[in-house]
Amino acid sequence: SLSNSCQPTTSLSSGASSSGNIKVQGNGFSDQVVVLSGTASSTEKDYRNRNNTLSKQIVFSNSPDLALSTKLDSSLWSNNQGTASVTVTVTNRSTINAASNVTVDIQLPAETTLDNANALGCLNTSPVQCPLGNIAVKSKKDLTLSLSTGNPQDAQLSTKLSASNDNFPTGPTSADITLHYKQQSTGGGGGGGGGSIGWLLPGLILLRLRWKASR
Fold first, then answer.
1. pTM of the full predicted structure?
2. What is the C-alpha to C-alpha distance for residues 98 and 51, in angstroms, rounded to an integer?
C-alpha cells in the first residue's frame, strides 16, 4: 500500500522536471516482491509518450539477493592432458542485506581434478564445497577454478550456491558449463619445404634442356 498520494503539478515548462517521494509498505509477509509502476500524464496531448511509464521492482526481505554465473576462461588439450580455467561469480544484488557464509558446491566431471582446491580453501567432498565467506550488499566475489583431466571428451561442470541467511528472490543460484578441451595446434612449419621443391623442379628442367642442346 502507498502511505501518501502523488500531488499533481499545475504546469511544467519545457526542459523542466518535477520529483517527489513515495513510501511503499508491505502487507506483513516476510518475503515479498512487488512491482511499482507509475505513469505521467497531462491534459495536453503528449506526442512522445513512450517514456511516460516507469516500473520499479521492490523486494521486502531480510535475506540477501544472490545470483551465480560461470565463465570458461580457457581450455586446452596437450600431451594427453586437458586443462581448463573456469570463473564462478557470486553477486549479492541486495541493497540492504549482506550474505553470510556463502558456499559454492561444485560437481566435478568424471576423471577431473580441481588442482587449486587447497589454495581456495575448498573441502574434498562430493560435491566439492568452496566457502566464499560473507558478501556485502551490491558486491560480488569470484572463484577461479583450475581444472585438469586425462579424458579429452566434453564434460559438464555443475555449480550451486547457498548462504546461511537464505536467499530471496531465488535465482539464478545454479549454473552448468561444458568443458570443451581444444586440441593444441601442431603448427604448419613442415609445409614450407614444398616451396623449395617447387623452385627446384624448373631448375632441373632447364638444366636438362641445356644438356640436350649441347649434345
1. 0.71
2. 34
